[in-house]
Design a protein that fits this description.
The protein has helices spanning about 35-55, 75-85, 90-110, 115-120, 130-140, 160-165, 195-205, 215-225, 225-230, 235-260, and strands spanning about 1-10, 15-25, 25-30, 75, 150, 155, 210-215, 230-235. The protein is globular, with a radius of gyration of 18 Å. The chain has one domain (about 1-260). The protein is an alpha+beta fold. Helix 7 (about 195-205) crosses helix 10 (about 235-260). The protein has ten helices and eight strands. Strands 1-2 form a two-stranded antiparallel ribbon. Strands 3-8 form a two-stranded antiparallel sheet. Iron/sulfur cluster binds near residues 68, 72, 160 and 161. Iron/sulfur cluster binds near residues 68 and 148.
Length: about 260
């Protein structure tokens, strides 16, 4: 049985209204991940519409994967959802992915970054941006394609992390060849879904919000298997997610009004 909720969210560029069906029984956190991503994508559509009306164009196109060399952070719920997605793949697809993840791990280890990334994924308190910045830069300096990238296309498109969905640019695509040196203009994001899911998970489990680097997400999910089996009433999970969305949106309104 599902219960239908009519959700309305005011974003800095318009109002988002949608109906969400949530199971009435107990569900794991992974069941709310698609709902959160859908709301994030609907908010992104409002941003795209706003940018288009202002005469800007989104430069991102199928086959352009320049940004798929960056370190992608996942929330704990997304790491569990990715594990579930990979587990249900046909064996040959799964083996291919796991092999590529193994190669990526070797390369990250050779660069001396694996342990630092592991520390980030298991941190017992939130990590400051200043601490993360050098790690992100060192990773990006490797210009290593994401292990889920195949022929410059995302091989897990429908299950890709929220951070991948949120990165859209209005600056010329060629500038994305060097995202550190070039003045790239990203489309504003009023709700960061991975942060929202991470904060919701932290509240539900009384644990610190985590940022799990994508290359180690499956290993992290394995280590935390026990936690992923917990369940909550569907409406309680939706409440948690919406509560953190409202907080993000309120912050987004403040930030944008201070920029005017
Ligand atoms: S998950 Fe997909 S979209 Fe995200 S960085 Fe990897 S290949 Fe790119």
């Amino acid at each position: 049985m599902v219960e239908r909720f009519e959700v309305a969210l005011n974003t800095p560029v318009g109002r988002l209204t949608t109906a969400i069906d949530v199971p009435t029984g107990l569900i794991p956190i992974t069941a709310i991940v698609p709902v959160a991503r859908r709301l994030g994508e609907e908010a992104a559509q409002l941003e795209i519409q706003h940018a288009t009306e202002a005469g800007q164009a989104i430069s991102c196109r199928i086959g352009c994967a320049a940004c798929c060399r960056m370190l992608v952070p996942l929330s704990a719920p997304e790491a569990f959802a990715l594990r579930d997605y990979v587990e249900q793949l046909p064996t040959d697809r799964r083996d291919l992915l796991l092999n590529r993840l193994g190669d990526t791990k070797d390369r990250i280890k050779r660069a001396g970054l694996w342990d630092r990334l592991n520390d980030v994924s298991e941190a017992s308190k939130p990590i400051a941006d200043e601490e993360l910045d050098p790690i992100n830069r060192s990773y990006y300096a490797l210009r290593m394609p994401c292990p889920y990238l195949e022929n410059e296309l995302c091989s897990i498109y429908e299950a890709r992390p929220a951070a991948c969905r949120e990165l859209l640019v209005t600056s010329p695509a060629e500038l994305c060849q060097d995202l550190v040196q070039n003045p790239v203009t990203p489309l504003p994001v009023s709700m960061r879904i991975s942060s929202i899911l991470g904060l919701a998970w932290g509240t539900l489990t009384d644990s610190p919000p985590r940022l799990i680097p994508l290359p180690m997400a499956l290993e992290w999910a394995e280590r935390h298997e026990e936690e992923s089996r917990r369940t909550w009433p569907g409406s309680a999970l939706l409440d948690q997610v919406l509560d953190h969305m409202w907080r993000f949106l309120s912050q987004a309104f403040q930030t944008r009004s201070s920029e005017l």
